[in-house]
């Protein structure tokens, strides 16, 4: 039975669970359940803190897991990123009192609060900066005001929390994070089934099906607009001067593509959502 770690709470939990359900897996009955068995799919799900998931997967007791790239890199483990999952995006940044820091080298000898000491420690080592790490569990933005740190390194999404604390970001982006599927080289073969299903969900979320009719003489111009994933399907129509085209189109380009197809002479342009995909 495949054993998979899933975030039990926090920013990643809801979407991770939605994705697994879209991939045809049975979710847990209630949000306090720690383990759920899906006998039809021969999978056992373990609901764990996302921060801990790389530890479990890296140890080899679980075959795969969903967590944040930042949590994976914060943990010393044998687990590796297998696929980015298109949600849970964030950036990891340095911040300090407005106007105080402009360059990361100014952190030399300073105290930096973070709940990502592993990630930050290795970043400092690579950058040759000797700073003192102040480990905190959360709400690190308050550490400066309360006098335990000179700067912080934390997840920034809208920047609202920083602004309210009178802080501003400085220095390079430490990490662009996103939710990821992780596994170890030993378990990657076992995890290929869940990977295939999640890939299907990603494609179904990223693409839609577009159908349209076009005069054969204009087909090449239209196909340049909708090259498709592998190759568009072209079917004859009763009117032999016309053909029907079916192609995959990225969701975020649908309307621009329809505008351009109309300009190219396409008629009856129809977009259909993808329910499930296996590439
Ligand atoms: N706006 C956001 N704030 C915090 N984390 C975010 C945000 N957007 C995406 N993320 C990602 O979600 C994950 C953090 O989720 P979670 O809520 O579990 O974190 P946490 O509160 O730091 O964890 P914990 O409470 O276990 O210490 C990280 O991978 C982070 O990069
Ligand atoms: O840029 P923003 O959109 O304001 O979001 C970033 C904030 O959200 C997260 O905190 P979280 O809610 O997880 O609380 P925590 O610090 O207690 O973990 C993160 O640690 C930042 O504090
Ligand atoms: Mg939190």
Main attributes of the structure:
single chain, ATP_PRibTrfase_HisG, 279 residues, Alpha-Beta Plaits, six-stranded mixed sheet, glycosyltransferase, cytoplasm, alpha/beta, globular, binds magnesium ion, 3 domains
Write the layout of secondary structure elements.
Layout: E1 2-7, H1 13-22, E2 35-38, E3 43-48, H2 53-59, E4 64-68, H3 69-74, E5 80-84, E6 90-97, E7 111-114, H4 117-127, E8 132-135, E9 151-156, H5 160-164, E10 167-177, E11 179-183, H6 192-206, E12 207-215, H7 219-225, E13 233-236, E14 242-250, H8 254-263, E15 267-273
Parallel strand pairs: 1-3, 1-4, 7-8, 7-9
Antiparallel strand pairs: 2-3, 4-11, 5-11, 6-9, 6-10, 12-14, 12-15, 13-14
Adenosine-5'-triphosphate binds next to helix 3.
Describe this structure in a few short sentences:
This protein is an alpha/beta fold and 279 residues long. It is built from eight helices and 15 strands. The chain has a six-stranded mixed sheet with strand order 2-3-1-4-11-5, with helices on both faces. Strands 8-7-9-6-10 form a five-stranded mixed sheet.
Give a written overview of the molecule.
The structure is a single chain. The longest helix has 15 residues, at 192-206. It contains eight helices and 15 strands. With 279 residues, it is of the alpha/beta class. The model has no long low-confidence stretch (mean pLDDT 96). It has three domains: 2-88 and 178-190, D-Maltodextrin-Binding Protein, domain 2 (3-Layer(aba) Sandwich), CATH 3.40.190.10; 90-176, D-Maltodextrin-Binding Protein, domain 2, CATH 3.40.190.10; 207-273, 2-Layer Sandwich (Alpha-Beta Plaits), CATH 3.30.70.120. Strand 13 (233-236) and strand 14 (242-250) form a beta hairpin. Magnesium ion (MG) binds at residues 10, 138. Pathway: Amino-acid biosynthesis; L-histidine biosynthesis; L-histidine from 5-phospho-alpha-D-ribose 1-diphosphate: step 1/9.
């Amino acid at each position: 039975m495949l054993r998979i770690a899933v975030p039990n709470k926090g920013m990643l939990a809801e979407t991770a669970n939605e994705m697994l359900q879209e991939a045809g897996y049975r979710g847990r009955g209630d949000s306090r359940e720690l383990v759920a068995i899906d006998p039809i799919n021969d999978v056992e799900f373990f609901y764990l803190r996302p921060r801990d998931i790389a530890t479990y997967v890296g140890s080899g007791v679980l075959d795969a897991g969903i967590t944040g790239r930042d949590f994976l890199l914060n943990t010393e483990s044998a687990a590796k990123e297998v696929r980015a999952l298109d949600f849970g995006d964030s950036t990891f940044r340095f911040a300090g009192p407005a106007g105080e820091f402009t360059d990361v080298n100014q952190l030399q000898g300073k105290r930096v609060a973070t709940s990502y000491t592993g990630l930050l420690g290795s970043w400092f080592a690579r950058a040759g900066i000797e700073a003192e790490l102040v480990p905190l569990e959360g709400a690190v933005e308050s550490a400066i005001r309360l006098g335990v740190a000179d700067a912080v390194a934390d997840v920034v999404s809208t920047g609202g929390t920083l602004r309210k604390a009178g802080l501003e970001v400085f220095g390079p982006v430490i990490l662009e994070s996103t939710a990821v599927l992780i596994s170890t080289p030993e378990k990657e073969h076992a995890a290929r089934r869940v990977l295939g299903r999640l890939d299907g969900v990603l494609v179904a979320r990223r693409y839609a099906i577009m159908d349209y009719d076009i005069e054969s003489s204009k087909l090449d111009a239209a196909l340049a607009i909708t090259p498709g994933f592998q190759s568009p399907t072209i079917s004859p129509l009763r009117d032999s001067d016309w053909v029907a085209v079916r192609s995959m189109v990225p969701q975020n380009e649908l309307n621009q593509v329809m505008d351009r197809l109309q300009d190219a002479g396409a008629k009856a342009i129809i977009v259909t959502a993808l329910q499930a995909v296996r590439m």
